[in-house]
Amino acid sequence: MPVLRLPKFGKPVKYAYITGRVRAMKTKLIPAEMYPRMMSMDTSEIARYLEETQYKDEIDALSKDYSGTELIEHATFANLAKIYRKLLKVSIDEPSFLILEYLRRWDVWNIKTLLRGKFYGASDTEIMKYLVPAGELSEEHLAELAKKESIQDIISAFDRTDYSSALAQYDGKSLASVENALDKLYYFRMERAVGGTLSVGGGLLLKYVRREIDIRNLITLFRMNKAGVDAAMIQENLIPGGKLFDELSRMAGQPFGEFIRGLEGYPFWSSISDVATADIDAISRIEARLKAYLIRYAWALSNYHPLSILPVLGYMVSKETEVANIRKIVMGKEAGLPAELIEEQVVVA
Amino acid sequence: MAVVADAGVLYGLVAVGAGLATGLAGIGAGVGEQGIGAAVVGVVAEEPGFLGKGLFLMLLPETLIIFGLAVSLILMFAWTPFSGIVTP
Predict the structure, then answer these.
(1) Which of A40, A265, A274, B43 has its CA 20 to 30 A from that of A338?
(2) CATH number listed for the domain at residues B9-78
(3) pTM across the whole model
(4) Do B35 and A18 touch (CB under 8 A)?
(5) Ranges of each domain in chain B
(6) CB of B57 within 8 Å of any CB in chain A?
(7) Does A225 touch chain B (CB under 8 A)?
Protein backbone atom coordinates (compact mmCIF):
# COMPACT_ATOMS: atom_id res chain seq x y z
CA MET A 1 0.00 0.00 0.00
CA PRO A 2 1.43 3.39 -0.88
CA VAL A 3 2.30 5.43 2.16
CA LEU A 4 0.55 8.77 2.24
CA ARG A 5 3.28 11.31 2.82
CA LEU A 6 1.95 14.57 4.12
CA PRO A 7 4.09 17.56 3.30
CA LYS A 8 5.73 19.14 6.30
CA PHE A 9 3.95 22.28 7.33
CA GLY A 10 5.20 25.28 5.44
CA LYS A 11 7.83 23.37 3.54
CA PRO A 12 6.41 23.12 0.03
CA VAL A 13 5.85 26.86 0.18
CA LYS A 14 9.57 27.32 -0.48
CA TYR A 15 8.86 25.89 -3.90
CA ALA A 16 5.75 27.96 -4.66
CA TYR A 17 7.67 30.89 -6.08
CA ILE A 18 10.12 28.96 -8.21
CA THR A 19 7.51 26.53 -9.56
CA GLY A 20 5.16 29.41 -10.41
CA ARG A 21 8.02 31.06 -12.19
CA VAL A 22 9.17 28.06 -14.21
CA ARG A 23 5.61 27.28 -15.23
CA ALA A 24 5.38 30.80 -16.65
CA MET A 25 8.79 30.33 -18.28
CA LYS A 26 7.61 27.06 -19.80
CA THR A 27 4.99 28.91 -21.83
CA LYS A 28 7.80 30.83 -23.52
CA LEU A 29 9.51 27.71 -24.86
CA ILE A 30 9.36 27.20 -28.61
CA PRO A 31 6.24 25.13 -29.40
CA ALA A 32 6.74 21.73 -31.00
CA GLU A 33 4.96 22.69 -34.20
CA MET A 34 7.62 25.35 -34.89
CA TYR A 35 10.38 22.81 -35.54
CA PRO A 36 9.01 21.54 -38.89
CA ARG A 37 8.54 25.16 -39.92
CA MET A 38 12.10 26.01 -38.90
CA MET A 39 13.24 23.16 -41.08
CA SER A 40 11.95 25.01 -44.14
CA MET A 41 13.54 28.35 -43.16
CA ASP A 42 17.09 29.35 -44.00
CA THR A 43 19.56 30.30 -41.30
CA SER A 44 18.91 34.03 -41.37
CA GLU A 45 15.16 33.42 -41.19
CA ILE A 46 15.67 31.19 -38.16
CA ALA A 47 17.78 33.93 -36.56
CA ARG A 48 15.01 36.41 -37.25
CA TYR A 49 12.41 34.08 -35.78
CA LEU A 50 14.55 33.55 -32.67
CA GLU A 51 14.73 37.29 -32.31
CA GLU A 52 10.98 37.28 -31.68
CA THR A 53 11.37 34.72 -28.88
CA GLN A 54 13.28 34.70 -25.61
CA TYR A 55 16.57 34.59 -27.54
CA LYS A 56 16.16 38.22 -28.56
CA ASP A 57 18.74 39.72 -26.18
CA GLU A 58 21.44 37.25 -27.14
CA ILE A 59 20.79 37.52 -30.88
CA ASP A 60 20.86 41.33 -30.66
CA ALA A 61 24.03 41.42 -28.56
CA LEU A 62 25.95 38.87 -30.61
CA SER A 63 24.85 39.91 -34.11
CA LYS A 64 27.63 42.53 -34.10
CA ASP A 65 30.33 39.85 -33.98
CA TYR A 66 28.75 36.83 -35.62
CA SER A 67 26.31 35.92 -38.34
CA GLY A 68 24.52 32.90 -39.75
CA THR A 69 25.03 29.56 -38.04
CA GLU A 70 27.71 30.89 -35.73
CA LEU A 71 25.35 33.55 -34.41
CA ILE A 72 22.66 31.00 -33.56
CA GLU A 73 25.18 28.61 -31.98
CA HIS A 74 26.53 31.33 -29.72
CA ALA A 75 23.14 32.82 -28.94
CA THR A 76 21.52 29.51 -27.96
CA PHE A 77 24.30 28.53 -25.55
CA ALA A 78 24.46 32.05 -24.11
CA ASN A 79 20.71 32.01 -23.54
CA LEU A 80 20.82 28.55 -21.97
CA ALA A 81 23.51 29.68 -19.54
CA LYS A 82 21.57 32.86 -18.76
CA ILE A 83 18.32 31.01 -18.05
CA TYR A 84 20.02 28.44 -15.82
CA ARG A 85 21.87 31.12 -13.90
CA LYS A 86 18.59 32.95 -13.48
CA LEU A 87 16.98 29.86 -11.96
CA LEU A 88 19.84 29.68 -9.48
CA LYS A 89 19.50 33.36 -8.66
CA VAL A 90 15.76 33.35 -8.03
CA SER A 91 15.68 30.25 -5.83
CA ILE A 92 16.63 29.82 -2.18
CA ASP A 93 17.48 27.04 0.27
CA GLU A 94 16.70 23.56 -0.90
CA PRO A 95 15.52 24.39 -4.45
CA SER A 96 18.69 26.38 -5.07
CA PHE A 97 20.83 23.54 -3.73
CA LEU A 98 19.14 20.93 -5.90
CA ILE A 99 19.24 23.12 -9.01
CA LEU A 100 22.96 23.72 -8.57
CA GLU A 101 23.52 20.01 -8.08
CA TYR A 102 21.66 19.33 -11.34
CA LEU A 103 23.52 22.09 -13.17
CA ARG A 104 26.89 20.63 -12.30
CA ARG A 105 26.41 18.57 -15.44
CA TRP A 106 27.39 21.71 -17.32
CA ASP A 107 30.59 21.91 -15.30
CA VAL A 108 31.27 18.36 -16.42
CA TRP A 109 30.37 19.35 -19.99
CA ASN A 110 32.73 22.34 -19.81
CA ILE A 111 35.60 20.32 -18.40
CA LYS A 112 35.10 17.72 -21.12
CA THR A 113 35.00 20.42 -23.79
CA LEU A 114 38.16 22.02 -22.43
CA LEU A 115 40.00 18.70 -22.42
CA ARG A 116 38.77 17.78 -25.90
CA GLY A 117 39.67 21.21 -27.24
CA LYS A 118 43.18 21.03 -25.86
CA PHE A 119 43.52 17.42 -26.97
CA TYR A 120 42.88 18.38 -30.57
CA GLY A 121 44.81 21.65 -30.32
CA ALA A 122 41.90 24.08 -30.71
CA SER A 123 42.46 27.77 -29.93
CA ASP A 124 40.99 29.26 -26.76
CA THR A 125 38.42 31.34 -28.65
CA GLU A 126 37.34 28.21 -30.49
CA ILE A 127 36.94 26.35 -27.19
CA MET A 128 35.04 29.21 -25.56
CA LYS A 129 32.45 28.90 -28.31
CA TYR A 130 31.31 25.55 -26.97
CA LEU A 131 31.40 26.30 -23.25
CA VAL A 132 28.17 26.82 -21.33
CA PRO A 133 28.89 28.68 -18.10
CA ALA A 134 25.68 27.44 -16.46
CA GLY A 135 27.19 25.49 -13.58
CA GLU A 136 29.40 26.45 -10.70
CA LEU A 137 32.43 27.40 -12.82
CA SER A 138 32.05 31.02 -13.89
CA GLU A 139 32.66 32.32 -17.38
CA GLU A 140 35.83 34.15 -16.31
CA HIS A 141 37.22 31.05 -14.67
CA LEU A 142 36.49 29.01 -17.78
CA ALA A 143 38.12 31.63 -20.01
CA GLU A 144 41.21 31.42 -17.82
CA LEU A 145 41.23 27.63 -18.09
CA ALA A 146 40.82 27.78 -21.86
CA LYS A 147 43.98 29.89 -22.08
CA LYS A 148 46.08 27.22 -20.35
CA GLU A 149 48.78 25.63 -22.45
CA SER A 150 48.16 21.91 -22.07
CA ILE A 151 45.76 19.31 -20.72
CA GLN A 152 48.04 18.76 -17.74
CA ASP A 153 47.75 22.44 -16.78
CA ILE A 154 43.97 22.18 -16.84
CA ILE A 155 44.01 19.01 -14.77
CA SER A 156 46.30 20.54 -12.18
CA ALA A 157 43.98 23.57 -11.95
CA PHE A 158 41.35 21.19 -10.56
CA ASP A 159 43.62 19.86 -7.81
CA ARG A 160 41.90 19.64 -4.44
CA THR A 161 38.43 19.72 -6.01
CA ASP A 162 36.01 16.82 -6.36
CA TYR A 163 37.00 16.47 -9.98
CA SER A 164 40.66 15.69 -9.27
CA SER A 165 40.08 11.95 -8.76
CA ALA A 166 38.25 11.64 -12.07
CA LEU A 167 40.77 13.79 -13.93
CA ALA A 168 43.65 11.71 -12.54
CA GLN A 169 42.51 8.91 -14.85
CA TYR A 170 43.91 10.75 -17.87
CA ASP A 171 46.54 8.53 -19.44
CA GLY A 172 47.80 10.90 -22.12
CA LYS A 173 46.41 8.81 -24.96
CA SER A 174 42.64 9.01 -24.98
CA LEU A 175 39.96 11.00 -23.21
CA ALA A 176 37.34 8.25 -23.06
CA SER A 177 38.28 7.05 -19.57
CA VAL A 178 38.34 10.58 -18.11
CA GLU A 179 35.01 11.44 -19.68
CA ASN A 180 33.49 8.27 -18.30
CA ALA A 181 34.90 8.96 -14.86
CA LEU A 182 33.49 12.50 -14.94
CA ASP A 183 30.03 11.21 -15.86
CA LYS A 184 30.16 8.65 -13.07
CA LEU A 185 31.31 11.30 -10.61
CA TYR A 186 28.44 13.58 -11.60
CA TYR A 187 25.80 10.93 -11.03
CA PHE A 188 27.45 9.80 -7.82
CA ARG A 189 27.35 13.35 -6.44
CA MET A 190 23.81 13.84 -7.63
CA GLU A 191 22.61 10.75 -5.82
CA ARG A 192 24.43 11.71 -2.67
CA ALA A 193 22.99 15.23 -2.72
CA VAL A 194 19.43 14.19 -3.48
CA GLY A 195 19.58 11.40 -0.92
CA GLY A 196 20.44 14.00 1.70
CA THR A 197 17.26 16.01 1.21
CA LEU A 198 14.14 14.95 3.00
CA SER A 199 11.51 16.85 1.07
CA VAL A 200 8.74 15.12 -0.82
CA GLY A 201 10.21 15.92 -4.23
CA GLY A 202 13.71 14.68 -3.35
CA GLY A 203 12.75 11.02 -3.65
CA LEU A 204 11.11 11.59 -7.00
CA LEU A 205 14.10 13.56 -8.26
CA LEU A 206 16.26 10.59 -7.37
CA LYS A 207 13.83 8.41 -9.29
CA TYR A 208 14.25 10.65 -12.32
CA VAL A 209 18.04 10.66 -12.05
CA ARG A 210 18.04 6.85 -11.87
CA ARG A 211 15.82 6.67 -14.94
CA GLU A 212 18.10 9.11 -16.75
CA ILE A 213 21.13 6.93 -15.99
CA ASP A 214 19.22 3.92 -17.32
CA ILE A 215 18.37 5.75 -20.54
CA ARG A 216 21.96 6.89 -20.99
CA ASN A 217 23.17 3.35 -20.44
CA LEU A 218 20.57 2.09 -22.85
CA ILE A 219 21.78 4.48 -25.56
CA THR A 220 25.35 3.29 -24.93
CA LEU A 221 24.13 -0.29 -25.25
CA PHE A 222 22.31 0.45 -28.49
CA ARG A 223 25.40 2.03 -30.01
CA MET A 224 27.94 -0.50 -28.80
CA ASN A 225 25.83 -3.62 -29.31
CA LYS A 226 25.13 -2.43 -32.84
CA ALA A 227 28.83 -1.97 -33.42
CA GLY A 228 29.53 -5.40 -31.97
CA VAL A 229 31.82 -4.27 -29.16
CA ASP A 230 32.61 -7.00 -26.63
CA ALA A 231 30.74 -7.20 -23.31
CA ALA A 232 33.57 -6.26 -20.92
CA MET A 233 34.32 -3.08 -22.87
CA ILE A 234 30.64 -2.05 -22.84
CA GLN A 235 30.22 -2.75 -19.14
CA GLU A 236 33.13 -0.46 -18.44
CA ASN A 237 31.26 2.36 -20.18
CA LEU A 238 27.99 1.93 -18.28
CA ILE A 239 27.23 4.39 -15.50
CA PRO A 240 26.37 2.74 -12.18
CA GLY A 241 23.41 3.91 -10.09
CA GLY A 242 20.54 3.29 -12.48
CA LYS A 243 17.58 1.25 -11.34
CA LEU A 244 18.01 -1.25 -14.15
CA PHE A 245 21.81 -1.29 -14.02
CA ASP A 246 22.16 -5.03 -13.38
CA GLU A 247 19.69 -5.98 -16.07
CA LEU A 248 21.22 -3.60 -18.61
CA SER A 249 24.77 -4.71 -17.92
CA ARG A 250 23.69 -8.30 -18.56
CA MET A 251 22.50 -7.17 -22.00
CA ALA A 252 25.99 -5.92 -22.92
CA GLY A 253 27.50 -7.76 -25.84
CA GLN A 254 24.29 -9.54 -26.82
CA PRO A 255 23.54 -9.97 -30.53
CA PHE A 256 21.51 -6.94 -31.63
CA GLY A 257 18.26 -8.78 -32.44
CA GLU A 258 18.26 -10.61 -29.12
CA PHE A 259 19.09 -7.38 -27.26
CA ILE A 260 16.07 -5.62 -28.78
CA ARG A 261 13.74 -8.51 -28.00
CA GLY A 262 14.96 -8.36 -24.40
CA LEU A 263 13.84 -4.74 -24.09
CA GLU A 264 10.17 -5.51 -24.59
CA GLY A 265 8.15 -4.94 -21.46
CA TYR A 266 10.26 -2.12 -20.05
CA PRO A 267 8.46 1.19 -19.41
CA PHE A 268 10.33 2.95 -22.21
CA TRP A 269 9.56 0.22 -24.75
CA SER A 270 6.33 1.80 -26.02
CA SER A 271 8.23 4.96 -27.06
CA ILE A 272 10.69 3.07 -29.24
CA SER A 273 8.77 -0.07 -30.25
CA ASP A 274 8.05 1.11 -33.80
CA VAL A 275 11.61 2.17 -34.63
CA ALA A 276 13.65 -0.37 -32.67
CA THR A 277 14.08 -3.20 -35.13
CA ALA A 278 17.02 -5.49 -35.65
CA ASP A 279 17.90 -3.86 -38.97
CA ILE A 280 17.74 -0.22 -37.82
CA ASP A 281 20.45 1.88 -39.44
CA ALA A 282 20.39 5.11 -37.40
CA ILE A 283 20.62 4.76 -33.60
CA SER A 284 20.08 8.54 -33.37
CA ARG A 285 16.41 7.95 -34.16
CA ILE A 286 16.04 5.75 -31.08
CA GLU A 287 18.09 8.23 -29.08
CA ALA A 288 15.69 11.06 -29.93
CA ARG A 289 12.71 8.92 -28.92
CA LEU A 290 14.31 7.96 -25.62
CA LYS A 291 15.13 11.56 -24.82
CA ALA A 292 11.54 12.58 -25.56
CA TYR A 293 10.41 9.80 -23.24
CA LEU A 294 12.65 11.20 -20.50
CA ILE A 295 11.12 14.69 -20.83
CA ARG A 296 7.60 13.27 -20.64
CA TYR A 297 8.67 11.26 -17.61
CA ALA A 298 10.03 14.35 -15.85
CA TRP A 299 6.79 16.28 -16.39
CA ALA A 300 4.68 13.29 -15.42
CA LEU A 301 6.59 13.05 -12.14
CA SER A 302 6.01 16.75 -11.49
CA ASN A 303 2.27 16.07 -11.43
CA TYR A 304 2.69 13.95 -8.32
CA HIS A 305 4.18 16.83 -6.39
CA PRO A 306 3.41 20.18 -8.00
CA LEU A 307 5.18 22.06 -5.21
CA SER A 308 8.57 20.40 -5.44
CA ILE A 309 11.77 20.52 -7.46
CA LEU A 310 10.19 18.41 -10.23
CA PRO A 311 8.54 21.16 -12.33
CA VAL A 312 11.89 22.99 -12.24
CA LEU A 313 13.59 19.82 -13.38
CA GLY A 314 11.03 19.36 -16.16
CA TYR A 315 11.67 22.89 -17.32
CA MET A 316 15.46 22.51 -17.24
CA VAL A 317 15.25 19.31 -19.29
CA SER A 318 12.82 20.90 -21.78
CA LYS A 319 14.97 24.00 -22.18
CA GLU A 320 18.11 21.97 -22.76
CA THR A 321 16.28 19.95 -25.39
CA GLU A 322 14.99 23.08 -27.09
CA VAL A 323 18.50 24.47 -27.44
CA ALA A 324 19.76 21.12 -28.68
CA ASN A 325 16.94 20.99 -31.26
CA ILE A 326 17.63 24.48 -32.63
CA ARG A 327 21.32 23.66 -32.91
CA LYS A 328 20.59 20.35 -34.61
CA ILE A 329 18.39 22.04 -37.19
CA VAL A 330 20.85 24.86 -37.88
CA MET A 331 23.94 22.66 -38.00
CA GLY A 332 22.16 20.02 -40.06
CA LYS A 333 21.17 22.64 -42.59
CA GLU A 334 24.69 23.99 -42.70
CA ALA A 335 26.06 20.51 -43.32
CA GLY A 336 23.47 19.99 -46.07
CA LEU A 337 21.75 17.02 -44.42
CA PRO A 338 18.38 16.00 -45.88
CA ALA A 339 15.37 17.37 -43.97
CA GLU A 340 14.07 13.91 -42.97
CA LEU A 341 17.35 13.06 -41.30
CA ILE A 342 17.30 16.27 -39.25
CA GLU A 343 13.63 15.79 -38.38
CA GLU A 344 14.34 12.35 -36.97
CA GLN A 345 16.86 13.77 -34.57
CA VAL A 346 14.74 16.62 -33.29
CA VAL A 347 13.38 15.66 -29.87
CA VAL A 348 9.69 16.46 -29.46
CA ALA A 349 8.08 15.29 -26.24
CA MET B 1 -35.73 30.79 37.19
CA ALA B 2 -32.36 29.91 38.63
CA VAL B 3 -29.40 31.93 37.67
CA VAL B 4 -26.83 29.65 35.99
CA ALA B 5 -24.18 32.17 35.14
CA ASP B 6 -23.25 35.73 35.54
CA ALA B 7 -24.22 37.78 32.49
CA GLY B 8 -20.81 39.40 32.38
CA VAL B 9 -19.01 36.03 32.16
CA LEU B 10 -21.35 34.75 29.44
CA TYR B 11 -21.07 37.86 27.32
CA GLY B 12 -17.33 37.72 27.82
CA LEU B 13 -17.21 34.14 26.53
CA VAL B 14 -19.35 35.11 23.54
CA ALA B 15 -16.92 37.91 22.77
CA VAL B 16 -13.96 35.47 22.97
CA GLY B 17 -15.78 33.13 20.60
CA ALA B 18 -16.45 35.97 18.20
CA GLY B 19 -12.78 36.91 18.28
CA LEU B 20 -11.69 33.32 17.64
CA ALA B 21 -14.10 32.99 14.72
CA THR B 22 -12.56 35.91 12.86
CA GLY B 23 -9.01 35.32 14.07
CA LEU B 24 -8.77 31.64 13.20
CA ALA B 25 -10.41 32.24 9.84
CA GLY B 26 -7.77 34.89 9.20
CA ILE B 27 -4.92 32.58 10.14
CA GLY B 28 -6.35 29.84 7.92
CA ALA B 29 -6.69 32.17 4.98
CA GLY B 30 -3.14 33.37 5.58
CA VAL B 31 -1.78 29.82 5.50
CA GLY B 32 -3.66 29.22 2.28
CA GLU B 33 -2.46 32.43 0.74
CA GLN B 34 1.23 32.09 1.47
CA GLY B 35 1.79 29.56 -1.29
CA ILE B 36 -0.55 31.23 -3.75
CA GLY B 37 1.03 34.62 -3.14
CA ALA B 38 4.55 33.31 -3.66
CA ALA B 39 3.51 31.51 -6.85
CA VAL B 40 1.68 34.55 -8.18
CA VAL B 41 4.72 36.76 -7.60
CA GLY B 42 6.79 34.16 -9.44
CA VAL B 43 4.47 34.13 -12.43
CA VAL B 44 4.08 37.92 -12.52
CA ALA B 45 7.88 38.28 -12.58
CA GLU B 46 7.79 36.42 -15.91
CA GLU B 47 4.40 37.57 -17.22
CA PRO B 48 3.37 41.01 -15.93
CA GLY B 49 -0.01 40.63 -17.65
CA PHE B 50 -0.96 37.90 -15.19
CA LEU B 51 -1.21 40.34 -12.29
CA GLY B 52 -5.00 40.77 -12.41
CA LYS B 53 -5.78 37.06 -12.56
CA GLY B 54 -3.08 36.35 -10.02
CA LEU B 55 -4.48 38.82 -7.53
CA PHE B 56 -7.95 37.33 -7.98
CA LEU B 57 -6.61 33.82 -7.26
CA MET B 58 -4.67 35.11 -4.30
CA LEU B 59 -7.73 36.74 -2.77
CA LEU B 60 -9.93 33.65 -3.09
CA PRO B 61 -9.00 32.22 0.35
CA GLU B 62 -9.70 35.66 1.76
CA THR B 63 -13.43 35.04 1.20
CA LEU B 64 -13.32 32.47 4.00
CA ILE B 65 -12.65 35.26 6.48
CA ILE B 66 -16.06 36.68 5.59
CA PHE B 67 -17.67 33.54 7.03
CA GLY B 68 -15.67 33.99 10.22
CA LEU B 69 -16.58 37.65 10.35
CA ALA B 70 -20.26 36.85 9.80
CA VAL B 71 -20.21 34.38 12.69
CA SER B 72 -18.53 36.99 14.88
CA LEU B 73 -21.11 39.62 14.03
CA ILE B 74 -23.98 37.21 14.69
CA LEU B 75 -22.45 36.27 18.04
CA MET B 76 -21.91 39.83 19.07
CA PHE B 77 -25.11 41.50 17.92
CA ALA B 78 -27.77 39.07 16.74
CA TRP B 79 -27.53 35.92 18.87
CA THR B 80 -29.07 36.23 22.28
CA PRO B 81 -29.70 32.71 23.57
CA PHE B 82 -28.99 33.74 27.14
CA SER B 83 -31.70 36.33 27.33
CA GLY B 84 -33.97 33.93 29.23
CA ILE B 85 -31.41 32.39 31.57
CA VAL B 86 -29.32 35.30 32.70
CA THR B 87 -30.25 37.92 35.13
CA PRO B 88 -30.83 41.29 33.53
Answers:
(1) A274
(2) 1.20.20.10
(3) 0.83
(4) no
(5) 9-78
(6) no
(7) no
